[in-house]
């Protein structure tokens, strides 16, 4: 399971990452380590740089400086469509499904991307039994929670080592939030390492192993969840809530 | 596109081809000629639909691909004395090559910029035709005489000026392109194109090289439009600069929108509808474009996704 917090043996290691949107610098020498089989949560206010960090990993925002290494392999400089081939899958905020396609077609397009077959499809659908009942339904007509599950299912069709989830519980009702949380925990048990961007403390504490507090484009502190439970002052310090 | 057996889908399209085949024997001469023209131009619309309907790229420059085929084949016959089959291949090759070059440049843009860039390239192509009038015939165009439009097969010969041969040749091209399009859009490649149309960034995030896929679509679309242009030159014996004008970039868009974007048979229905509405209304009044306009407005109001697109949405969800 998880190595010691922030050790150099991490599966995904980001160091000294600078990113810009045009002239505006968003990330300032950001350092981050995701260990194998852990759930790392990025926590911070709006505009802190959490989503930009995920986009930089995926090659959607170019790195002006620094490095992003997955199991020792440098990801910066790769074309955005080549990053998923290294074993990273991304579920963006707002789900972004292929709304006119059915659930089955959405899953299929994920499977085709890496040439995966029926076995992967079955494994993924076992994680989301609700989707199995909706295979012929147009994905644009699913509820918010079901859409989130489908977005995750499609990403998991790539059989990633690292899953990036950007606010997966945003706008969902509590029962769906619980299901998403359960799925993230199950994925950890299956060996998938996850970076989870969240705004809600309660949505994070029960599922994350460590939390990195992102502020003004920097990783201010990474703490173990157990430590945070014992002393929630870090949450108050960086986000102003507890 | 929900659940229909491939047999049912192929049966429908082969049925349409069979119907068009049978029409050759019952249509009066005038309508036989009109149908041959419609089928040749429906191929143009199908090529356009591949890019616009399935990839979501709105081009305003497809007249250049149609004209590349038209002039590629027409000039090969007229200026070089080539036979019909070689000239047809030359026309398609010209369109495909041009589409590759234009695709490499224009795909650096998207949305409105893509529309403008393709329109500008098409205007350049149009002006080049006028500039090299000594070769192309300029705005007067060139007429390909009957002896140049005969295909010798062994001891026999096929005269493309013969109405039945012309009809059957147009039908053959239409059928081949229809079936190729059907196979293409149902293939892995076709599904990726639809995914790009729905959300390009997401498709990229799944590991698809969206630019490469779009480039292949541009080349396939250009080649199909060029095949239509080449067939038009050889079947109807005329090449002219008007086919490269912006009007011929807008027409396929209109045909596809009317018939139903991202439907296989929509381009045929749209082309057929436009030709016959224009043909019928022009018999009543010289202000026929006014009536055509009203007809188009009504169609858009009641069939916002085009005829076949609306039919698919309301009743036949399985239609490809």
Q: Which helices and strands appear, and what pairs or packs with what?
A:
The complex is a heterodimer of chains A (242) and B (320).
Chain A: E1 12-21, E2 24-34, E3 39-43, H1 50-57, E4 63-70, E5 73-74, E6 88-91, H2 103-113, H3 118-127, H4 129-132, H5 144-156, E7 162-166, H6 174-189, E8 193-198, H7 201-205, E9 210-215, E10 218-224, H8 225-230, H9 233-239
Parallel strand pairs in A: 3-8, 3-9, 6-7, 7-8
Antiparallel strand pairs in A: 1-2, 1-4, 4-5, 9-10
Chain B: H1 6-26, H2 29-55, H3 62-78, H4 84-106, H5 111-131, H6 133-136, E1 142-143, E2 150-153, E3 156-159, H7 163-186, H8 188-198, H9 200-205, H10 210-236, E4 238-239, H11 247-259, H12 266-281, H13 288-302, H14 307-314
Antiparallel strand pairs in B: 1-4, 2-3
Helix pairs in contact in B: 1-7, 2-7, 2-10, 2-11, 2-12, 3-4, 3-5, 3-10, 3-11, 4-10, 7-8, 7-10, 8-10, 11-12, 12-13
Total domain count of chain A: 2
CATH T-level fold name of the largest domain in chain A:
Rossmann fold
Strand order of the largest sheet of chain B: 1-4
Q: Write down the secondary-structure element order of chain B.
A: HHHHHHEEEHHHHEHHHH
Strands of chain A, count: 10
Most extensive interface, chain pair and sizes: A-B, 31 and 20 residues
Sheet with most strands of chain A? 6 strands, mixed
- So what's the overall shape of chain B? globular
Q: Tell me the radius of gyration of chain B.
A: 19 Å
Number of discrete domains of chain B: 1
Portion of residues within helices of chain A = 25-40%
Q: How many separate helices of chain A?
A: 9
What's the N-to-C terminus distance of chain A?
Answer: 28 Å
Largest sheet properties of chain B: 2 strands, antiparallel
Sheet/helix structural class of chain B: mainly alpha
Q: Treating each run of at least 4 consecutive H or I residues as one helix, how many helices of chain B?
A: 14
């Amino acid at each position: 399971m998880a190595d010691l917090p922030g050790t150099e043996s991490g599966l995904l290691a980001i160091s000294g990452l600078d990113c810009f949107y045009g002239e505006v610098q968003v990330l300032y020498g950001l350092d981050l380590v995701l260990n194998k089989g852990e759930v790392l949560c990025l926590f911070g206010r709006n505009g802190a740089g959490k989503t930009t960090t995920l986009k930089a990993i995926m090659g959607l925002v170019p790195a002006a400086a620094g490095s992003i290494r997955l199991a020792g392999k440098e990801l910066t400089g790769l074309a955005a469509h080549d990053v998923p081939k290294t074993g990273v899958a991304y579920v963006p905020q707002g789900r972004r499904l292929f709304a006119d396609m059915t659930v089955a077609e959405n899953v299929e397009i994920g499977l085709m991307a890496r040439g995966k077959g029926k076995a992967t499809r079955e494994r993924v659908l076992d994680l989301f039994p609700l989707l199995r009942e909706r295979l012929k339904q147009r994905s644009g007509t699913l509820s918010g929670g079901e859409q989130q599950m489908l977005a995750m299912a499609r990403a998991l069709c790539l059989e990633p080592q690292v899953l990036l989830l950007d606010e997966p519980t945003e706008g969902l009702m509590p029962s769906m939030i619980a299901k998403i949380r359960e799925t993230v925990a199950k994925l950890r048990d299956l060996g998938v390492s996850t970076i989870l961007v969240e705004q809600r403390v309660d949505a994070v504490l029960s599922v994350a192993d460590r939390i990195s507090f992102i502020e003004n484009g920097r990783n201010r502190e990474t703490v173990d969840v157990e430590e945070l439970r014992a002393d929630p002052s870090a949450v108050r310090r960086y986000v102003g809530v507890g | 596109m929900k659940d229909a057996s491939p047999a049912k889908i192929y049966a429908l399209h082969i049925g349409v081809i069979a119907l068009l085949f049978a029409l050759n024997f019952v249509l009066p001469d005038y309508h036989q000629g009109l149908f041959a023209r419609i089928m040749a131009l429906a191929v143009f619309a199908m090529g356009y639909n591949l890019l616009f309907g399935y990839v979501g790229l709105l081009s305003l420059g497809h007249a250049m691909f149609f004209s590349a085929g038209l002039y590629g084949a027409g000039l090969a016959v007229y200026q070089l004395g080539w036979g019909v089959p070689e000239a047809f291949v030359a026309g398609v090759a010209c369109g495909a090559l041009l589409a590759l070059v234009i695709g490499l440049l224009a795909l650096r843009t998207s949305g409105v910029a893509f529309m403008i860039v393709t329109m500008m390239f098409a205007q350049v192509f149009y002006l080049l035709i006028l500039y090299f009038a000594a070769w192309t015939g300029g705005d007067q165009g060139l007429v390909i005489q009957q002896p140049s439009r005969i295909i010798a097969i062994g001891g026999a010969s096929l005269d493309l000026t013969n109405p039945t041969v012309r009809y059957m040749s147009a039908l053959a091209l239409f059928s081949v392109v229809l079936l190729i399009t059907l196979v293409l859009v149902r293939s892995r490649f076709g599904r990726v194109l639809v995914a790009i149309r729905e959300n390009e960034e997401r498709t990229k995030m799944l590991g698809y090289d969206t630019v490469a896929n779009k480039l292949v679509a541009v080349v396939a679309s250009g080649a199909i439009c060029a095949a239509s242009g080449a067939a038009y030159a050889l079947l109807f014996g005329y090449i002219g600069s008007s086919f490269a004008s912006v009007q011929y970039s807008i027409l396929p868009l209109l045909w596809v929108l009317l018939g139903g974007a991202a439907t296989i048979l929509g381009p045929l229905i749209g082309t057929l509808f436009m030709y016959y509405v224009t043909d019928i209304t022009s018999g009543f009044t010289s202000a026929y474009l006014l009536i055509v306009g009203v007809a188009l407005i009504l169609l858009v109001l009641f069939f916002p996704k085009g005829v076949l697109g609306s039919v698919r949405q309301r009743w036949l969800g399985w239609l490809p």
